[in-house]
Amino acid sequence: MEKINFEFDFSSKWFQTPGYLFCKVPDCVKEETEQLLQEVEEGKHEVEDFRSRLAGHLQKETSLPILPKLRYLVESLAYEYDKIFLNGKTAVHHFYTKEKFIEGWEYKLDSLWVNYAKKHDFNPLHNHSGLYSFVIWVKIPYDLEKELSVYPANENQTSLFSFRYTDSLGEICTDTINLDKFSEWNMVFFPAKLHHSVNPFYTSDGTRISISGNVFSYLKNEK
């Protein structure tokens, strides 16, 4: 067979899939939040049972008052996400007419809640309302190595947090985040429609505590 050898030019184009932001919660936000959770436990704030509004298979999930430092952190991350993943555009530009958009809009942390997960509790695959969501891990009561040793499964995901999304070929992809005591006061910030789940843990009688919330957009002249 005759050997064929010639030069040719080509270029490549990657599909872009936005991901998530990772943040270590600043000390001032941690202190504010710890104080809030303590006051909620002492009954100093009126909170609402959120279990009927959420996907979690947990015995306790309640609303939380939105305090200023956490609000500032979350809303700031929304604008940073736009810069990093949307090339400086915004997640809301298609929501409003050009005239309304130019008049001005803003991101607002609209809902906040706390999750108390016991042994065997879990959050099935789900997504959120709004434009952006986040999770802050407050307390992780188990050792990751012990958790992963419970089941010798292939691609073991015991106790892990997972994102799931489809790639350009339609394959379902999973991105997992290990959770242990070193994850406490870590935070992930992501598009609200990005599906995610939290798997159960088995080796501790403690409580896994996390805080979540949703960010929406509002026109600045809206009442």
What's this model, at a glance?
By secondary structure, this protein is an alpha+beta fold.
Commentary on this structure:
With 223 residues, the protein is of the alpha+beta class. It has a single domain (21-88, 95-219), classed as Jelly Rolls, CATH 2.60.120. Helix content is 20%, strand content 30%. It has four helices and ten strands, in the order βαβααβββαβββββ. It has helices spanning 27-41, 68-85, 98-103, 144-148, and strands spanning 21-24, 60-63, 105-117, 123-126, 132-139, 161-166, 172-177, 186-191, 195-198, 208-219. The strands form two sheets. It has a six-stranded antiparallel beta sheet. Strands 4-9-6-7 form a four-stranded antiparallel beta sheet, with no helix packed on it. The chain is flat, with a radius of gyration of 21 Å.
Identify the notable features of this structure and list them briefly.
223 residues, 10 strands, 6-stranded antiparallel beta sheet
